[in-house]
Design brief:
With 257 residues, the chain is α+β, with helices and mostly antiparallel strands. It has helices at residues 2-24, 73-102, 107-132, and strands spanning 31-37, 40-42, 48-53, 60-61, 66-70, 135-137, 142-147, 154-155, 162-165, 170-177, 189-193, 202-208, 213-214, 228-236, 247-251. Strands 1-10-14-12-11-15 form a 6-stranded antiparallel barrel. The longest helix has 30 residues, at 73-102. The radius of gyration is 33 Å and the shape is elongated. 20% of the residues are buried.
Length: 257
């Protein structure tokens, strides 16, 4: 019985030592990061009321696809006024040109009429542009990420009505401590893993911060949170398989658990 107990104690001690050794040889934890995106915000030049929405959140749009329309009563009135001014300027120019040909008019009057005509034409072009921009089309292909104003709501000038997420604008963001910086270079590929991601997901580093900052108050790094860290950003090779805000793990040199 005593011998049996001694054997059990030896086996238990061996198990503890093996566990401690395993802790010393833990796999590379990599870097903890998350997915962000550079959204394209589409906004009107002037304040207005949204009268038509052509898309819904989650829709995919191509370049030039109609997105929304804002009321254009004021812009149409401005165009009408500009056209009237242009008509008067054209008449004045025609008279000045006719008098100039017969020698009854002066060169100064002709030049003045020509200048007024050019100004009137420019104002019409400006009014036409303002009117056309009350109906916004997609400036880039991508997915409608969010709609900020609905039909009937008034949107201030330069405030976005819709945001678009082009696939190429997805990015991986993570932080590394200063001693780890020599391991990473712009243009280098890193491996990215996440729940449900494909095994061949990688990202190419395109930005390494030159200024340090304090570790953000979320799980961007596994340890040494009180130390200064550097932000690194990379473009994934398969952006369509990722989601904004998704947590990911990043590994260098092709190493991963």
């Amino acid at each position: 019985m005593i011998a049996s107990r001694n054997v059990m104690r030896v086996l238990a001690l061996a198990a503890v030592l093996a566990a401690l050794a395993g802790c010393g040889n833990s796999k590379n934890p990599g870097y903890q990061g998350w997915i962000e995106a550079d959204l394209i915000f589409v906004s009107p030049d002037e304040q207005g009321r949204v009268v038509k929405l052509n898309v819904r959140e989650g829709d995919h749009v191509e370049v030039g696809a109609p997105l929304y329309a804002v009321d254009d009563d004021l812009q149409q009135a401005d165009l009408n006024q500009s056209n009237a001014t242009l008509a008067n300027a054209q008449q004045a120019y025609d008279r000045a040109a006719s008098l100039s040909k017969t020698g009854s008019g002066t060169q100064a009057n002709f030049d003045s009429a020509l200048a007024n005509l050019r100004v009137a034409e420019a104002r019409v072009h400006t009014s036409q542009t303002k009117l056309a921009r009350r109906r916004m089309n997609a400036p880039i292909a991508g997915t409608i990420q969010q709609i900020y104003f609905r039909e009937g709501e008034t949107v201030p000038a330069q405030r976005p009505v819709i945001s678009i997420l082009p696939p190429g604008n997805m990015k991986v963001r993570f932080f590394v401590a200063e001693p780890e910086l020599p391991k990473l270079k712009v243009g280098e590929d890193v491996r990215v893993t996440c729940d449900g991601c494909t095994s061949d997901l990688t990202a190419k580093i395109y930005f390494i911060a030159t200024m340090a900052e304090y570790t953000p108050p979320v799980i961007y790094s596994l340890d040494e949170r009180s130390k200064l860290v550097y932000l690194i950003q990379a473009r994934p090779n398969k952006p369509n398989s990722l989601r904004v805000g998704q947590p990911v793990s990043i590994y260098t040199g092709g190493t991963a658990p």
